[in-house]
Amino acid sequence: MAGRPVRRLPRIGAHSRRSRRGDVIGIAVVALLMLALPLIASSSVINVGVYALIYALAALGLSLLMGLAGQVSLGQAGFFAIGAYTQAVLVTKYEWSGLPASVLAVAVTMLAALLVGLPLLRLRGHYLALATLGFGVIVTVLATESDFLGATSGIYGITKPEMNGRTYNSPTEYYLLLVPVVLLGLWLARNIVESRIGRALGAVNDSEVAAESLGVDAFRLRVQVFVLSAAYASVAGTAFAHWLGVINPNAANFPLSVKFLLMAVLGGVGSVYGAVVGAFAVEGLDDGLRRLIPELLPGAVGEVQLIGFGILLTTIMIFLPGGLHQLWTGARRRMAGSAPEPGDDEEEIHLEPVADDVPLLAREGRPAAGTPLLEVRGLTKRFGGVTAVDDFDLTVSAGEIVALIGPNGAGKTTAFNMISGAVTPTAGEVTMAGTRVEGRKPHVFARAGATRTFQNLQIFTSATVLGNVMVGRHLRSRSGMLGAALVLPARREERAVEESARELLDLLGLGEDADRLAADLPFGRQRLVEIARALALDPDLLLLDEPMAGLSGTERRELARLLRRLRAGGMAIVLVEHDVEAVLALADRVAVLEDGVRIALGTPDEVRHDPAVVAAYLGVEPEDGAAAAVAEAGAP
Amino acid sequence: MTDLLQLLFAGLSQGAVYALVAIGFVAIFTVSGVINLAQGEFAALAGLVAISAVGSGLPLLAAVVLAVVSVALVAVIMERLVIFPVKRMTTLVSLILTLGVSTGLKALMLLVYGPNAEGLTPLTPGGFSVAGVSIRYQELWILLIAGIVSLAVYWFYERTLAGKSLRACAEQPVAARLVGISLTKASLISFLIAGTVGAIAGVLASPIFFTSWESGLTLGLKGFVAATLGGLISVRGAVLGGLLLGVLETLTAGYISTGLRDAVAFLLLIIVLVARPAGIFGRSAEARV
Amino acid sequence: MGRRTATTRTAALLAAMTLSLAACAESDDGGGGGGGGSAEETGPIKIGAVLDITGAGASLGVPERQALELLAGQLEEEGGIDGREVELIIEDNQSTEDGAAKAMNKLVNEDEVDIVLGASRTGPSLAMRPIAESTETPMISLAANQAIVEGSEWVFKTAQNDRVVIERMIDYMAEQGWSTIGLARDASGFGEGVAEMFDEIGAEQGISVVATEKFAPDATDFTAQMVNLRNAGADVNVIWGIPPAAGLAQRAYDQLGIETPVMQSHGIGNQVFLDTAGDAAEGMVAPLGRLVVAEQLPDDDPQKEIITTFIDDYTAEFGAGPSTFSGHAYDAWQLAVDALREEGTDPQAIRDHLESVTDFTGISGVFTMTPEDHAGLSKEALALVTVENGQWQLVPDQGD
C-alpha cells in the first residue's frame, strides 16, 4: 500500500477515480450503519433515528445547495413545510393515498421553489441567505393565517402510511420504510455531484466568470439545484407529516432551518453522505443533551440542548470547517499512509518538437480562414465620469492572431470583458459568428463558439487538472440533471468527455498532472491548464488575456508555438499582451489602445512605425519596458 | 385620525428599537462583512441582565449600566473567540458562526433566567394622553435615547478620526492597512459598538415589549430587515429603515391584519433585496461584476 | 485495504445477524406482553406528561410540572399504588403542536406509559389526541378548548371547557345589560372558535360579538388590536388569551385609556398575569377556578379543604402559591391515580373508569364525566373573580 501515489482529498469537482470511490465508500458505510441500527438499538434510539432519517433528507438537499451551488439557504424549512402541508391536505381533505400524494407534494414544492428561486437566486451570499430566511417566515405566516390550512393548529389526523396491507406504525417499521428512501436520495445526490452538472457547479463555485466563459449557465444551474434541494426537503416534509400525524406552521420555522443547516455543516457541506451522518449526530445530540443537561443542572428546562448546538456550530466552523467528512477523509488518508506528491518541481513545458505550422485542433465545420468571426462596433464603457473604452471597433477573422496592446489602464481588459460578456457595455455592439452577444452573459459568448482566459488566473482550485479541462467540455456534452441522477444515460458520455480531456492534456504536455489538484501546480502550468480548459471548448475564437505573464522564456516560446499551430488549425486568437516583442513577432494584426481609444490597427510592421503608437509608448515613463520594446523594435 | 396618530406613535417607538438593533448590524457589517445573527441576542441578554439586577435590589440606573457594560463585554469576547480566529471569512462561515453564538446565548439565557418573559421597570412609569393619543413615558425615553445614540454613532463615524478609520477599513481595506489601521482592532471596536447599541435597545424595549430568552430572534431579524432597507452600510439608512419598518408593521396590524405583521417585514426585505440591493435610502450603486 | 474491508464486512455481517436474532427474541417477548389484553401487574406504573414547559405556554406548563412533581413525590412516600412504584415521565413540547406530537409518540412508543397527562394548551393537546386514539392510550388534557374531547373515546380533560366558561361570562354580561362584545383573542388553538361560541351561546340573550381581533401567544405589542377594539365601541370587551400575552394586552387596553369594561378568560389564573398586567388588571372580571380565591370561600364549600391542602403543600414545596393551571394538573393526576388504583394498568379499564367518574372533587370543580362529556365540569365550577390591589378577589355578586 505504501509507495502508491496518494492524491488529494476527494472533493466535489475533483474527478479522479479515487474521488468517486471515496464517496462510494462513505455512502456504503453510512448505508450499512443505517441498516444495522434497528438491529442493535433500543426503541428509544430508533425513535430518534426516525427523525434523523426524515431530517437527513432535508439536510441532504441543503448540503447539495451549499456544496454545489455555494449558496446558503436559511429557509429550507419553508420547503419542508410546503411539502408537508401539501401532503397533509391531499391525504386528509381529498383522501388521496400516501404515495401519489407525495408525488404531487414534491411537484408542488418544486414549482414553488422555481417561483421563489427565479427572483431570489439573482442575489448572492448574505443577501440570498437572508432572503430565504424571509421566505421561511412568510411561509409560516401564510400557513398561520390560512383557515384552509388549519391556521395555528394546523392539520391533524394524517394517518401512518399503509402499503400492501401493512401499516408502518412503530418506530422500527417507519424507520425501515425510510431507509430505502434515504438511500435512494443519497444515490441520486451522489450521481449528480459526480456528473457534468455537479462539475459545472463546482466550477461556478470556484470562479463564476470562468465557468460562464466555458459555457456554463450559472444562474440556470443554480435554479436547478435550488429546486432539487427543495424537492429533497419536501420528501422529508411528507415523511414528517405522516410520522407526526400533524403539521402546523412551526414546520416552516427558522429554528428548523437552522437545524438543517447544522446537520449539513456538521456532516461536511457537499459531502453527500455527510448530511445523513450530520442528521444522526444532531438528533442524537439533541436527545442526549435534552436528557443530560437537566441532570447536570437541576431545574434546567426546555430547549437547553441548544447550548450544545451553539457551541458545536461555532467550534466546527472554526476548527473543522469540512465537518465530519473532513475527519473521515483525513483518517482515511492516514490509513493509506502518506506518500509524496508527484513531482512538484518546476518542470518546463516540453511539447514534442514539431514544426510551427503543423495544424492543431483543426476540426470539420470550422469557418474557413479569413471568414469574419467577431465584429466589434463602437464599443464604449463609461464608469461614472471616466470613459474606459471609447468607440472601439475590431473585426477578427478565422485563422488569424490579433493582438491588443497598450499602456497600463488603456482599457484592454475592459474591452475584453465587454466582448466576452462579463461586463455590459455602455454602448456599441459585439457580434460573434452572427450572434449578438454584448450585455449578455459569458455563456452566451461561449455558445457562439468563443471563450477566453484570464489575466489573473481563474483556475477551478478545488478540481483536478482533468476536472478543470472537463468543465471546458461542458458545451460538448449534454446530459442534464435528470440524466445525471439516473446515471445510465450519462455514463457513456462522461467516459467520452474524460477521454477527450485526457487527450487534450497529453497534447499540451499536461498528461502527467491530469489527476493532480490544479491549485497545486506551479504558476506557469496553471496558465497552461487555463488554456487547455479553453481549448476543450473547441472554440472558433480564443481570447487570451496576458497569456505570457509570469511564464519563463522557454514557456513563452512553447506557448507561442502552440498559438501558431492553433492558428494553422483555423482558430482565431485575440490576445492582450504586455510583452510587446512577443506580440509583434506572433500577431498577424495589432490594435493599439490608449486611454480607451484605438490609436492604431495594422500589421506589426505598420504599427511599429506608427508615430502615434511610438508617442504613446514613449509618452509614459522611459523605464517602461513596453515603451522601450516599441522604440527598440521600431528602430532596427 | 387619532387612531392613525396612535398607531404611528406606537410604530415609531417600536421602530426606534429596530433602528438601534439595525445600527449594530451596520457597525459590524461595514468593517468585516459579517452579518451578526447574534445581534438580537445582545438586546435580549441586556434586558434579562437588567431585570435580574433590579430583582436582586440594584437601583434601576445601575442595573441598566451593568447590563450595557456586560453585554458590550460579551460582544467583545465573542469577536475574540469566534470571529478573530477565522482566517478566511466567507458568507457561509460568518453566518454559521454567528448563528452558533446566537443559539448558544439563547440557551444560556434560558438556563440562567428561565423560560418566562418579564419586563424591566420603566425609567418613568405611567403615561399621559394628548388629543386622544396615549403615550407612555417609557416610549418617550425610547425615542429620546435612540435618537441620542443614533446621533452619537453617526457623529462618531462621520466626524471623528477613529470613526473615519473604521469606515476606511470597510471601503478600502488595503488603503486602511497602508495607513496603519489594523483590521483586527477595527473589527473588535465594531463589535463593541454593536454590543453597546444592541444592549441599549434591549433595556429600552424591555419595559414595554418584555424580554425572554427567545425574544432576541424576532428583534434581531427585524433589526436586520431595517438595516437592509437602509442599505446595510449606512447608519442613517439603518435608523430610517428601523422607523419605517416599525410604522409599517403597526399600520399593517391596525388596518389590514395583525397576523400579517411579520410577513410585511420579510416581504419588504425580499422586495428590497431583489429590486434595490443598495437599500431604499442608499444611493444606487453600479452592480459589481 | 481490500482484504481488510472484506474482513470488516464479514465481521459486521456476523454481528448484525447475531444481533438480529437477539432482537427477534426480544421483540417476541415484548409482543407477547403488549399484545395480550391483560396488562402485566409488575414493574413501575408509568404516567407520562406532555407540558408546555418552554415557549408561549411556559407560564402554564411550569406550575403544572411543579404540581405533578409534588404529587408524584407524595405518592412515592405513600408507597405508590398497591405497592407498585409510580414513575412520572415529563416531556416538554416547547409550546408547539409538533413538539407535543413528538413527545406523545415518544411516551407511547418508547416509554410505553399507561396514561398520558397534558398538554397544557389546546393546540398541543389537539395534536396529541389522534395518537392517543390510535394507540388506545388514555389521555387527560389540561387545556380548555372543548374540541379536545369532542367525540373522543380515549381523551379526557380537566380544565373547564370554554363552553362553560363562555356560558358563565354570557350570564354575567346579560345581568349587566351588555349586548355587544369586542373580542381580542389568542390566535392559537386556545382562541380558535371562541367568537363563534360567544355568538352561539349569547344568541338567546341577544348578545353577539361585533369585532374580533387576534394576537399571537408570544405577541408583545397590542396597540393595533386595542385601537381597533376601542373603535368597535362594544358594551364589553373580552380579552381571551393566556399570560403573559393576556397581561400585556390588558396593559395596552388600560394604557389606551379605554373605559369600556373588560373581561378575561379562565386562561389567566396565575401570578404571571398579575405581574404582567400590573395596575391595569384592577377591575377586570374573569371566570376562574376557586383556587385563586381559596381563603375567601365559605367554609361549607365542598372544594375548600382540598384546595387549601394543595395550596399549603405547594407553597411549602415551592415557596409560592399554585396557579389555576397547577390545579388542572392536580385534578388530572388525581383522576389518573384514582383510575390506576381501581383498575390497574389495563388501558380499556382505565378509560372506562374515567368515563364513569362521578362527583369527584378536585381543584377546578366537581367532576362528573359521561360518555358524552369527557370534561366533567359545569359552569358552577367557575367563580367570577376580579383584581383588587394586585390580589384576586371574588366578585361579590356572582350573578346566580
From TrEMBL, chain B:
Pfam families: BPD_transp_2 (PF02653). It is a multi-pass membrane protein. GO terms for cellular component: plasma membrane. GO terms for molecular function: transmembrane transporter activity. It comes from the Bacteria. The chain crosses the membrane at residues 16-38, 44-77, 89-113, 140-157, 186-209, 229-251, 263-282. Keywords: Amino-acid transport, Cell membrane, Membrane, Transmembrane, Transmembrane helix, Transport. InterPro entries: ABC_transp_permease (IPR001851), BCAA_transport_permease (IPR052157). The keyword Transmembrane helix applies. One of its GO terms (biological process) is amino acid transport. It is found in: Cell membrane. Its main location: membrane. Belongs to the binding-protein-dependent transport system permease family. LivHM subfamily. This is ABC transporter permease.
TrEMBL record, chain C:
InterPro entries: BCAA_transport, Leu-bd, Peripla_BP_I. Keywords: Signal. Residues 1-25 form the signal peptide. The keyword Signal applies. Residues 44-390 form the Leucine-binding protein domain. Pfam families: Peripla_BP_6. Belongs to the leucine-binding protein family. This is Leucine-binding protein domain-containing protein. It comes from Modestobacter caceresii.
